[in-house]
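quick q for whoever's on today - can somebody do inverse folding on this one?? i tried earlier but teh output was garbage lol. tokens:
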């Protein structure tokens, strides 16, 4: 029996030394990878936490390259609706992400995605949160004294 107590989340650890990203997903929308202007969905999936006891989650390992962009976007981004109940959707998000040049900061990318979804949903009201985490892989190297692993909970 399902009693309605569950949570969707994704957990990721980025190792800057090896440029590897490990992701486990528990019911959140699939993360997106933008490489050389092309967007792909990362096939990390699983059921929400708390839905079924003793659920095991698959870990996906990505080998990232300098210039790669990884975007974790809540369903409030994809499902933002306009007055005609048309969702913002993956196609609009893909077009937006493909338009960013390598030099575009993650802060600017985040602001532009939020701005675009706000414009799309103008006058329709908001029904869900819009949460984003954007990771840009750079050429910069990490020395032994610096942090190397960055956990991300979304």
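ok took a stab at it. sequence:
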């Amino acid at each position: 029996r399902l009693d309605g107590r569950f949570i969707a989340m994704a957990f990721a650890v980025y190792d800057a030394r090896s440029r590897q990203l490990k992701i486990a997903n528990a019911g959140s929308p699939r993360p997106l990878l933008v490489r050389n202007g092309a967007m792909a969905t990362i096939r990390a999936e699983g059921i929400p936490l708390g839905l079924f006891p003793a659920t095991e989650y698959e870990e996906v390992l990505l080998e990232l390259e300098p210039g790669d962009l990884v975007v974790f976007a809540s369903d409030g981004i994809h499902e933002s609706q306009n007055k005609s109940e048309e969702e913002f959707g993956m196609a609009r998000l893909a077009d937006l992400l493909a338009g960013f040049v390598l030099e575009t900061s993650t802060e600017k990318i985040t602001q532009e995605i939020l701005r675009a979804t706000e414009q799309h949903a103008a006058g329709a009201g908001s029904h869900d949160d819009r949460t984003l985490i954007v990771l840009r892989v750079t050429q910069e190297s990490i020395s032994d004294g610096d942090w190397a692993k960055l956990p991300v909970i979304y």
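fwiw Helices lie at 75-78, 89-98, 106-120. also DSSP finds three helices and eight strands in the chain. so keep that in mind when u check it
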